Amino acid sequence: MRKSYKSSPILEAPSNKRPPLYSAIHVNGKRAYDLARQGEVFELPSRSVTIESLELIESDEDSAIFEVTCSKGTYVRSLARDIALKLGTYGHLISLRRQMATPFHEKDAILLDSLLNIGHKVELEAHVLPLQGALADILALEVGHEEAAALHHGRPIPSPLMDERIVLLTCNTIPQALGRVEAGLIKPIRVFNLK
User: Fold this and answer.
1) Of 74, 92, 123, 172, whose CB count within 10 A is highest?
2) Who wins on pLDDT, 136 or 16?
């Protein structure tokens, strides 16, 4: 029986959650998990996250299975820890199954063994998602052929934007490059060779 928890002190949205010490976050140029394994004492700053929903799928005396919909940057291990602490006990994650990381969905995934069997055959194209899907949250700017050629040669082009940011540059809707806006210019940082 599913139980849905859309509002509780644990799930105030947005809320501040402290990432686990065993995480890949950088602390003074080193990974937190390396420092934790070395016995270093340090504290990671809290970060603002949003827990949109939390459903109890199944439980017994020692464990529970939850389904959570959360914002980017949420450490589900921290969520499990915080739920246990609110219940006056200790808890940890036994396993984690990510069903979606926008815009990617588990239903579109294929098994690694299947991928290895396909190799570089034509069938592989049926499973490859367009580049724009992975870059959907980055502002896209359309450029002309001359600007696209300049980008492909590593040259910056004039920017219509003033604020520093990363942008996707397209020509006839085809991705040409990722660029960084700096001082009125867009400098290419990754160029694509797509037809």
Assistant:
1) 74
2) 136
Q: Which strand (E) or helix (H) includes residue 16? A: strand 15-17
How far CA 101 is from CA of 69, 90, 97, 110, in Å, comes to 10, 28, 11, 15
| Whether CATH 2.30.130.60 fits 131-191 | yes
Q: What is the DSSP letter of 121?
A: S
Q: Where are the domains of the chain?
A: 3-97, 131-191
H/E run at residue 51: strand 51-59
Question: Percent of the chain at pLDDT above 70?
Answer: 92
DSSP three-state, residue 119? coil
The phi-psi region of residue 88 (left if phi > 0; otherwise alpha if psi is between -120 and 50; otherwise beta) is: left
Average of pLDDT values for 145-165?
95
Hey, how many other C-beta atoms are within 10 angstroms of the C-beta on 167? Answer: 19
Can you say how many angstroms the Cα of residue 42 is from the centroid of all Cα atoms in its chain? 25
The reported pLDDT for the residue numbered 47 is 83
Task: Using CB atoms within 10 Å of the CB of residue 60, give its burial: 0 to 12 exposed, 13 to 18 middle, 19+ buried.
Answer: exposed
pLDDT at position 172 is 94
